[in-house]
Amino acid sequence: MKILYALLVFVPIAILARIAGAPPIAVFILSALAIIPLSGVMGAATEAVAEHTSPAIGGVLSATMGNLAELIIATIALRAGLIDLVKASITGSILGNLLLVLGIALFAGGLKFKVQKFNRNLAGSSTTVLLIAVFGLVVPALFYGLHPDPARAATVRMSHYVAWLLIAGYVAWLVFSLWTHSSSFSSDQGPGVTVAPKWSSKKAMGILLAAAVTIGVVAEVLVSVTVEAVKVLGLSEFFVGLILIPIIGNAAENSSAIIMAMRNRMDLALNIAIGSSIQVALLIAPLL
């Protein structure tokens, strides 16, 4: 963590570079470097909050704070008319969390522990919710295919209805997993690496919120130079949205999930990785 704290110096450097009118590629790199230590601080705060609550709440908090940066990036890009980049970033975020992050977490945890256990109810309910999200996201496309609408007015209305239903479904899933049936998602894992909470719950929440806000500011700086930086690097808008934006925007929960798996806290690791994809599909995409 000492190294990460030292890297926090890139936060003011990135902001000052943008204000001073530095080359877009320099601002882009500095902003990406600034998000890395902020993600580490957010991961540590999330871990501390989870120690005082539960793996489910810790996972939801990590996913929410981690996706905040991506939501800001996508919102600014959407206002700038970068529709393809936003669509690619949504797809890349869902796939990245389910395949890359969860895969690395399972692999890293397996290197330290011969056997790791996780709550089957957590895995089953998460899979079901993701399946529902897929159907919901496909409905507008199916509707447009079955009901040709040159002006797309009806398709837009259908999209609005589906968006509200997806958001309602996310709220219902939170109530189900965190309140009405929270006992079904309680952790029952073998011995692992236990770490005593370093911060109180109030301090951890304060640091978590401060890190999230700071990431939002740095993310806005990052997006403001993305188009120019993409031209300099010679990359396509699709590649940036599918690969770079999700990795940068989701750096917080990515690192947290891997660290939790290496400490044999697989329920929290699954909650972070899968929960982030659920939140993107049921909340972030409908909001956008």
What features would you describe in this structure?
The chain is an all-alpha fold and 288 residues long. Helices cover 81% and strands 0% of the residues. It has helices spanning 2-7, 10-19, 24-52, 55-79, 83-112, 120-146, 153-180, 201-224, 226-233, 237-249, 251-262, 266-287.
Note the main attributes of this structure.
mainly alpha, 288 residues
Q: Helix- and strand-based class? A: mainly alpha
Instruction: Tell me how many strands there are.
Output: 0
- Mind describing the biggest β-sheet? none
Rg of Cα set: 19 Å
The DSSP helix count reads 12
- Percent helix, as a range, is over 70%
Overall mean pLDDT score?
81
Please tell me what the overall shape is. Answer: globular
Note poorly predicted spans: none
Which percent range describes the beta-strand content?
under 5%
Distance between the terminal alpha carbons, to the nearest Å? Answer: 34 Å
* Helix and strand run: HHHHHHHHHHHH
Give a brief rundown of this model.
The protein is an all-alpha fold and 288 residues long. It has helices at residues 2-7, 10-19, 24-52, 55-79, 83-112, 120-146, 153-180, 201-224, 226-233, 237-249, 251-262, 266-287. The two termini are 34 Å apart.
What is the topology?
Elements: H1 2-7, H2 10-19, H3 24-52, H4 55-79, H5 83-112, H6 120-146, H7 153-180, H8 201-224, H9 226-233, H10 237-249, H11 251-262, H12 266-287
